[in-house]
Amino acid sequence: MSHVMHYGDLSIANEFVADFQGWKKGPEQFVPDYEKNEGGAWPSRDIPLLMLEKQYQEEDGMHQKFEIRRQIRKLERKREYLHNFMKKLVERIIHDPVQQRRIMNVHPETINDFQCHDKLLKAFHKICFNLAKVSSLEKNNLLLAHSIQ
């Protein structure tokens, strides 16, 4: 079963989009570079890492640069560990590979059952990680939300 949903008039599904929008190319749209986005919004889980990278670029002293680089690597290792932990957790709970990918990659926009979500977060906090101390857990919190949908 595909995760793709179809809506509307499916009788035009085999038609070319250009038949409706025209065949001429439009002007190229500007796509901001994520790495160089000065004034835009960043995912909150990335803020600590971005701040460290900015400090590293602005620092002149070799010893301070070394210390900041060490902090960046530590944060990246924690994220990688947490990602691998969540992946293994999903693989142990859900045995269907298609469902595993869906849970890991497609996140709900809202939480429908707050009591269930609260119980799940408290159990996760007690058994696995102290959620308050783990920055970058926002994305994985969505994973937990998805698992109860």
How would you sum up this structure, described in words?
- This protein has 149 residues and is mostly helical.
- The chain has a domain at 44-147: Topoisomerase I, Chain A, domain 4 (Orthogonal Bundle).
- Helices cover 54% and strands 0% of the residues.
- It has 6 helices and no strands.
- Helix 2 packs antiparallel against helix 3 (62-93).
- The protein is flat, with a radius of gyration of 21 Å.
- The mean pLDDT is 76.
Describe how the helices and strands are arranged:
Layout: H1 18-21, H2 47-58, H3 62-93, H4 97-105, H5 114-127, H6 138-147
Helix pairs in contact: 2-3
Q: How many strands, what sense, and barrel or not for the largest sheet? A: none
* Count of DSSP strands: 0
Structural class: mainly alpha
- The proportion of residues in beta strands is under 5%
By CATH, the architecture of the domain at 44-147 is named Orthogonal Bundle
Q: Quaternary arrangement of the chains shown? A: single chain
- Distance from first to last alpha carbon: 18 Å
N-to-C SSE string, H for helix and E for strand:
HHHHHH
Helix content: 40-55%
CATH fold annotation of the domain at 44-147: Topoisomerase I, Chain A, domain 4
Q: What's the alpha carbon Rg, rounded to whole Å? A: 21 Å
Count of DSSP-assigned helices: 6
GO molecular function, one term: cysteine-type endopeptidase activity
Family: Belongs to the peptidase C13 family.
InterPro entries: Legum_prodom, Legumain_prodom_sf, Peptidase_C13
GO cellular component, one term: vacuole
